[in-house]
Amino acid sequence: MKKKGSISYAKYGYIFSIPFVVAYLIFAFYPTLYTIIIGFTNLRGVGKTTFQFLPLAKLFDNYRAVLTAPTFKIALGNTVKMWVLNFIPQLILALLLAAWFTNRRIKVPGEGAFKVLFYMPNIITAATVAILFNALLGYPMGPLNDLLLRFNFISKPIDFLIYKKVAQGFVIFIQTWMWYGYTMIIMISAILGISPDIFEAADIDGANGFQVFFKITLPSIRTILLFTLVQSLIGGLNMFDIPQLFVQNSGPDNATLTTNVYIYKLAFSGGYLYNRASAASMFMFVIIAVCSALLFFIMRDKDEAAMKKAAKLQRKEMKKAEKARLAAAGSAVKGGK
Description:
Layout: H1 10-38, H2 61-67, H3 70-101, H4 111-123, H5 126-136, H6 143-150, H7 164-192, H8 196-204, H9 209-220, H10 222-237, H11 241-246, H12 259-268, H13 274-298, H14 302-336
Helix pairs in contact: 1-13, 2-13, 3-7, 3-10, 3-12, 4-7, 10-13, 12-13
């Protein structure tokens, strides 16, 4: 019971949250809802806008058109490929560096400077990095071509970005280079959150570095690994800045075309197909949601899940026993009458 004269501060929490709620409704919820709606319309670009819902028989025409489009399939394949190939080395490198920096047995000279250097690429905007690498690989005269010619590694300038695998490889490298430092910082924070007593016990038992890392460190940061994986999944499948600005027109044979670039081109190039761009966006939303749910399921704590299941079954049994007891008591009362 609330004491008379006491002050309730709960209302201030609601007041302070109003700006966020308003901003979220205007800049996130409304655009998402509007995007879902226009996927079922024939809304086109500026100058020929006709916001009209499609007939019931054709309600999913935009989704069918996107799903059967060869370009969308290419974009989706490129997106998944480039995300997987940049996330795996990124995570491995981040874990190795985090284990190195948090190792109790060695002291890394200049540890703070190293952390800053490794994290620095993440501070630079993706658009700036894309333009920088495009300039470095410039043809016929760019820094890389000039360097290779000067040391006689090549006899004439090479247009690197006309090769499909080279263009994809550089996008993968840029994504890895930009994000491994951020992932490293997350991993370091996770490892520092593990109780030192566990590591001391491992030292007393004679565990070596590999055993400590694989038997203690990795299992203890499972939750943070899941967070990193889901965050990378969302960011990777929404890859836009680097592929769009690094190679003109998505490179040779749409080598660097991603789903976000494909959606951008549908909406703001050519026919200004807002309806089909919306349908493609919804496909990506569903893919990300399903993949995230699968990751949560696969990486769940199985012991904790088993305990919850056992507790649930126990509660059910207790309810059944309670119902049986009440039924027996009711029968006894009736029999006594």
